[in-house]
Amino acid sequence: MNGTSSGHTIEPIVEKVMCIFNKLDFMKTRIFLLALFFISCLPIRSQGVAATTEYVKELTSNWQGERFDDGRPKVSDALLERLKKIQMEEAWGYLRNKGYNNQYDGDWEILHPDSVMTGRVLTAQYMPLRKDYQHLVKLKGAKEKRDTLGGSNSWPIEILRTGDVYVADGYGRVVDGTLIGSNLGNAIYANSNNGVIFNGGVRDVAGLMDIKGFNGWWRGQDPSYLQEEMLTGINTPIRIGRATVLPGDVVLANRHGIVFVPAHLVANLVLSSEVVALRDQFGFQRLREKTYTPGQIDTGWTDAIKSDFRDWLKKYPDNMLPMTRKELNDHLNAATN
Q1: Where does the chain bind Mg(2+) (predicted)?
Q2: Second label for 244, Cα 20 to 30 Å away, from 13, 61, 271, 306?
Q3: pLDDT category, 16, cuts 50, 70, 90?
Q4: Lowest mean pLDDT: which of 68-77, 107-116, 325-334?
Q5: Number of Cα atoms under 13 Å in the Cβ half of residue 296
């Protein structure tokens, strides 16, 4: 047959097939090059000092409520006030049960240890000074229309809102790592009516104590001023000791430590902890009355005790409840179902 099957050679057929494939490859190449051209024409936004609104929304995508224009969740003032009454162990335990095991840190110096502070987190990241990087930060800050005449440690302060807590990672540096003194402390309180949490140092503590309503948690105090340290990011994820902190988290800080609560968990954490407090109040009362033994109260409650607790709640004055009656009933019904 000599390479034929019906008296004709196959070479012309092969040539036609190869020609078709070559044309397809050429078309694919043209499409690919056109795509590269159009991509190169698109505006490219480089990383700035502050995180973009879109990035903050991605970081806090579980939050479904109102937001600030920088993308941070706007947890209500009412919830922030209720959170002040929650025990640290209750908040810590709730978060652990939800799988958030790295939201607490302790061992702080506190300006006013008897006070409790809650608020919405605005984060700042500081690093040891590097000349070329600091120059870039200054250029980026100028493009973002930030004040480049003074130090960049004022930039986070300038964008604080009422109810914010300025949370900064100064990598634990105290000597030459004093992020604020009394001047910046006054500016912080003027913008936020709140305080600070610094994984670093402060100076002029006597002046900070004179700011009525201001409070702070920090690693130490020193007379030195900030040097060999630079701001590198605003509203980016940071580490505070043992905790991972995102912009828009809600902080609970007291003499027992600090816990950072993801915004989408705040409402249920507060309500659940308030119900636990009511259970404790009921249990203490029944123990004083000798209605039940400590063993009965400390272990899983029987149906009879649960029913007694519900009857006790019905007689509880509405104006003394930490939550609304509807919130309480909805929570109890959800726990039963």
Answers
A1: 204
A2: 271
A3: low
A4: 325-334
A5: 15
Question: Using CA atoms, how far apart are residues 126 and 177, in angstroms rounded to an integer?
Answer: 9
Would strands 257-261 and 164-169 be described as parallel, antiparallel, or unpaired? Answer: unpaired
- Token digits for 312? 């006790």
Cα-trace Rg, the chain:
30
Residue 186 tokens read as: 């006054």
Q: What are residue 169's DSSP bridge partners?
A: 125, 199
Binding residues for substrate: 181-184, 203
One-letter identity of residue 219: R
CATH of the domain spanning 53-74+101-261, picked from 3.50.30.40, 3.40.50.2000, 3.30.360.10, 1.20.1250.20: 3.50.30.40
Known binding-site positions: 181-184, 203-204
Query: In the block, which residue shows the tokens 């000092």?
Result: 49
| Rounded Cα distance, 158 and 192, in Å | 10
Residue owning tokens 């659940």: 272
Enter the tokens of residue 139: 């250029």
pLDDT, mean of residues 294-303? 94
Q: For the whole model, what pTM was predicted?
A: 0.83
Pull the structure tokens for residue 72: 């941070």
Q: If we measure between CA atoms, which residue out of 157, 195, 200 comes closest to residue 177?
A: 200
Residue type, 300: G
The continuous run of DSSP H or E covering 121 comes out as: strand 117-128
The annotation places the binding site for Mg(2+) at 204
| Separation of alpha carbons 68 and 58, rounded Å | 14
| Farthest CA pair distance, the chain | 111
What are 238's strand-pairing partners?
245
* Residues facing 48 on adjacent strands: none
